[in-house]
Design a protein that fits this description.
By secondary structure, the protein is an alpha/beta fold. The chain contains eleven helices and 15 strands.
Length: 337
């Protein structure tokens, strides 16, 4: 990797190689390399006249002796090291042929977010590991429409089938009823190790015991700093709001509506193609929102989204359909995507 701070950025293709058990592969930089001994996601510099996807496939073939068959564009992070200004284009690699094998004297290690056992990580890689802690699906409550009892019964079934992230969003619910609902949701989420976010202000989020806060687009644009919570996300509809979420260094964003939706019938859907354009080069994980169903996860990932955010789609999923815990590694069709 070459370049000088202020001259770059040097384009880099980086691979988050994911197994079905959500473990990911890290490589340790060998002796004689800049930052030797540091751990990083595999990849390398994009050569002249080479696409980022082509560079990804070439680097993994050269470094790890694997052939990529399925890779989803994900997030892009820039970082200025003392020796180079780099732009890291991360892909989630969920399909490959061969067993990853060191071909450049680098040590390899399969790791998980819950028990990361290697260090130090290259500084630019820390936010990527944190992003991997976010599940593929975010479910949003609609108890005001559905009824609390029905919503909690469907939440129980969804958690049993793999749901691991829930947002409490009840704008019109009286305070006492909202407290009771949030308490019931929180107990259920803790039982399954799921995150509970609150769509509200800071005080309400603390009062309801949320693991994090979700900002409306209006609150996002009014904010001057990141709220002081472990997890923080925001609703976005365009480039300006996405830029503000990135400026505040939030953990994720929702973007939509992708399709027509009953909750916002007057909103113009952005569609998959524009979603993909908006996500090119974006540094945060983004959930596609608006008319989504679980079967849309593959399309969302192909557009560069982290996953899906759903209201009705979460609670009306067929009882035999599981909420995915990984990014489609086991059923990926052959062919580099």
């Amino acid at each position: 990797m070459s370049g000088q701070p202020g001259v770059g950025p040097v384009e880099v293709a980086a691979a988050v190689i994911l197994r079905a058990d959500r473990q990911f592969l890290l490589a340790r930089r060998p002796p004689g390399r800049v930052y030797e001994g540091y751990w990083e996601f595999p990849g390398g510099k994009v050569e002249r006249a080479e696409s980022i996807r082509t560079a990804l496939a070439r680097e993994l073939r050269e470094e790890l002796a694997i052939t990529v068959t399925c890779a989803y564009p994900w997030i892009t992070r820039e970082y200025v090291y003392p020796h180079a200004h780099v732009r890291l284009n991360f892909f989630r690699v969920v399909g490959w042929v061969g067993e990853p094998t060191s071909r450049e004297a680098q040590a390899l290690s399969w790791q998980s977010v819950e028990s990361l056992s290697v260090s130090p990580l290259l500084p630019a890689n820390g936010p990527i590991v944190r992003a991997l802690a976010l599940p593929p699906v975010l479910a949003i409550t609609d108890a005001s429409e559905r009824g609390e009892r029905a919503l909690l019964a469907q939440l129980d079934r969804a958690l049993e089938r793999g749901l691991r992230m829930v947002m409490v969003r009840e704008k019109q619910m009286p305070k006492q009823r909202l407290h009771a609902l949030a308490s019931a949701v929180r107990v259920r989420c803790k039982r399954y190790g799921a995150l509970m976010l609150v769509n509200g202000d800071d005080a309400q989020t603390r009062d309801l015991g949320g693991d994090g806060v979700h900002l409306t687009a209006a609150r996002l644009m009014a904010a001057r700093s990141r709220p002081d919570f472990a997890w923080c996300g925001a609703s976005c509809h365009d480039e300006i709001e996405l830029a503000q979420a990135a400026e505040l260094q939030l953990d994720y964003a929702l973007l939509g509506p992708v399709r027509p939706t009953r909750s916002k019938p007057a909103a113009v859907p952005i569609g998959w193609e524009r979603l993909g354009r908006l996500l090119q080069g974006y540094p945060l994980p983004v959930y596609a929102l608006g008319g989504m169903q679980l079967d849309d996860l593959r399309a969302a990932c192909m557009a560069g989204a982290h996953g899906l955010a759903m209201i009705r789609g979460a609670w009306s999923a067929p009882p035999d359909q599981s909420f995915p815990s990984d990014w489609l590694g086991s059923d990926c069709a052959s062919g580099m995507r």
